[in-house]
């Protein structure tokens, strides 16, 4: 299965930047072009792309990639929305999308007229595995296919098709995973069709269900959003019916990991690094996977984390799940090919779907949907973003006395803490228990006391070890929260000092991925208009009206964000203001090129936010929006514009390459324009997220009115300085939002004498999403935070 890329050792390797080969970019004529499956087979790498909502086919293709990275578009291509892949052992065929590929690379196609729907999964047949294979569509159409003749038998009718044929009739929609294990066909979906689901990520959504291969009805296992379903057999299917199945999903609290072993399901919870996947409609998630990449452990992708996943995971041996690093790319599938891991991504969509916001202004969407493959060395999986994770077992809900929470991951992070709140009118105790060996045997760790209707946090020491932790409440309580915040130490160096903000301009310009099947990138600068193709040569052109179109349709809005003396200010869709740290105190609102791009989609339904010298990951509004933002890296540069094209991230503005790697710098033929080019996950290397600022700087504050929220999550060492101009002492009350959903609790109150400054250093392990400060009297005050 793992092929050697031997030809590349004997010939010049095609041009690539950070493992992305521009010539391998894949395009379609639809609103989205995601990578549905990537599989090595018959000495080639096979790839399918997908369009959104195309059960009858589309302009997407089946690609065959040779060992010397030649891309072959197969003439059998019929497109659609495929994300299924499975290798059938007995017939030695790869089933990928609507195609069956034999060991001699002969491709046969199953027409959508015979098997309607958006194929999302394959599985071994429960009753005749040597001769048949299951297909599932995203709308719960289930079929069996004869592996020899490709004859299709409809088992359950796709929900999009009218008729009286039997239906699976499962709650949720937007199917993802399919697998057989322990006598059951297991299916997962991760979405909901209601209008509320398109707005509120806490809307009940998704389902995990099973069918025995014989009856007329399915059994609902759990009503939550689930994606991958697999087992030790992986892409081949389990070898023994006794082998377990694994599935991953989530709700608004945290990630959910479940295993079917011995006929029973066991559930666990894991923290989330990113909230960009959280939409209850299910569109933001693509296809997280658990796959073999030729290492001791499997690789799992979920909510922006690369995870180690043990090959023998089960209730009696549940140790070893651990984060490797955080990432920004949207990954639809991945595999090992030779000495590299190949990730199929969802990079640039012509439709922003529901991901529109005022900070983008009237920015024209990319002219054509496109995506690419990302080739990385396996060891790079440990070297992207420093791992963080946040998640709850209870989130503002009723809990019965002594009822244990779900197990929550307790290992794999260097810094760990737990926030606890409740609304009981008297102090109460919570008991923490650990499963030390991952064998299901629980022992008491310690008790944590929380004051009446109050809040407490506790930090775990390095000596407090175990695979999983769970919480028990000491009494019935109507509303309680138990949420964990984890992180690994951020070992990145801060960005190097750069020239002042008013330095002479480098190379500014507006960027746009062109449509009309031109497949080029447009750059419009003050000095001219340029285009670049797959050869990565930036050429000046005189196309009539092109520069004028760019100036109007790709204009940068002047009021998308603001900077004042205290911090960056982001105004959300409801008009509420949120404050963000500056990378340095003197960072000005306008750069040498004028307004700078603040927000833009850089992966399908994912935005970057560039404010005050820091790049932030900004989830879509339906996934929490600005309330769930997190810093990626502080660069302290003047970046005029940025965009994605052919799977690459490109930026105009300051020269960011610093001479380290000429491949990150593209200069025009006339020498008057240049761009930085790389992968979006190169941003992690720009520098540790740091910041200065706060909600107040010599600000006139009103009595009893909390300041605007100021970002705290994702930063390392944190301290605050508090002062005021009042003639008498003031007690300034500091609150933190634990979850990014408005779970405000009092962190501490500080007595500040007139003319004095009180400095407080937060424990290094302490993490919360937002912080705000309140004064009991009207005054002029400063609350100045430094994140190092």
- Considering DSSP H and I runs of 4 or more, what fraction of the residues is helical? under 10%
N- to C-terminal separation?
45 Å
Low-confidence region ranges? 1-10, 500-504
User: For the CA atoms, what is the radius of gyration?
Assistant: 27 Å
3D shape = globular
**Hey, roughly how much beta strand do the residues contain?**
35-45%
Sheet having the most strands: 4 strands, antiparallel
How are the strands of the largest sheet arranged? Answer: 2-3-4-5
Number of helices: 1
**Structural category:** mainly beta
The number of distinct β-strands equals: 60
What average pLDDT do the residues reach?
Answer: 95
Quick structural gist:
The protein is mostly beta strands and 788 residues long. The chain has 1 helix and 60 strands. A hairpin with a 2-residue loop joins strand 20 and strand 21.
